[in-house]
Amino acid sequence: MIAYYFQRLIEIFPFFLKGLWMTVIVSCLGLIFGTIFGFIMGVLRSQKIRLFNWPIGIFVSVIRGTPFVVQIFIVFFIFPEWGIQLNAISAAVLALTILGTAFICEIVAGGIKAVPKGQWEASASSGLSIVKQLRLVIIPQALRTILPPLVGQYVLLIKDSSVVSVIGVVELTRVGWLTVVRIPEGLMVFSLVGILYFVISYPLIRLSNGLEKKLSVGQISL
Q1: For domain 2-216, which CATH number applies: 2.40.440.10, 1.10.3720.10, 3.90.1300.10, 1.10.3520.10?
Q2: pTM for the whole structure
Q3: pLDDT in tens, 171-218
Q4: Whole-number Å distance between alpha carbons of 222 and 107
Q5: Distance CA 1, CA 216 (A)
Q6: What torsion, rounded to 10 degrees, do the Cα atoms 114, 115, 121, 127 define?
């Protein structure tokens, strides 16, 4: 019987690849937008400007303090009641973007705050504007602190993308649940799902570990 189930799993393997591709698309879009907005909000948060600091702080605390499944339900089911109509894929990307923005914001803000105060003073004494200080002096140094946890956060966001299956996005986890209906061998099916998640996450894990080692001994130039 196990051999029969395994043969059936091989036959529908292309279905898993389609689910994997959907996971990659949704995750990449969420990571790209989350990185852009997270960097912008992180820079603003690091400046301790009350106009930005309070709302950004509340946003980050709410998103980090609530389950992702609740957030995606709000995006998919509540936003339409406010006039924001989204299909399942758009809702998934938006929810991942919001989640990524909150966590990346804190990583970026922490990295900028870790730059020694003397660097700010030196760049200011050179007559640079605050934007040029950040772009030319502060952020290049902050990247040494930001990059390893940022890449690690990417891995977590890819794994969090499995939650979007609850709103009907046919990504990798959803494919697993649909397959179990036909092949009642859950361990076999979800072992394959886990392996495919590992395939797309492992390169990022290696990258994160490599960056952490190189940055810790100053072997990388930015």
Answers
A1: 1.10.3720.10
A2: 0.87
A3: 889 898 888 888 887 888 899 999 999 999 888 888 887 877 776 655
A4: 18
A5: 52
A6: -130
